[in-house]
Amino acid sequence: MPAESRTNAVWSTRPMSKVFFITGAGRSLGVDIARQALENGHQVVATGRRPETVLRALGGEHDNLLVAALDLTDPGTADAAVTAAVDRFGRIDVLVNNAANFYAGYFEVVSDQQMRQQIETNVFGPMNVTRAVLPVMRKQRAGHIMTISSLAGLVGQEFTAAYTTSKFAVEG
Asked: Which of 18, 103, 166, 167 is labelled catalytic?
């Protein structure tokens, strides 16, 4: 093949569009990741407990966007969101476990219920979603899983006992 043809072939190939499944896409980092993926021509499954909030945060309906309800603590909603994603886009290439919550307070003032909810959401939540997505990725024989953590998962700080505990578990 002549050098010119090889060069044109390289420049004319576009990376294949990926399907991103993003938890916590209604605010903050989740919105930013979803917007970047959409702007780069990818398909996005943006999830959150309140789909209307996610849709509003991402600027409304979009051909490459599917907004799905997802409560991390409910494996059934994870399964339903994954099924909706595969029905719409045929696959899931990248799972971004981004959703989390934060209970502030010294250990002795964080209630047992708050501590359990922190662990349920920040540790078992990503496990629930990953467990729902893995069969899809195994069938495809491809996929990437990213779980967002925090510096709090490496260095404990005052007033963040519940959050730090959950992020240390995520790091593990």
From this structure: 167
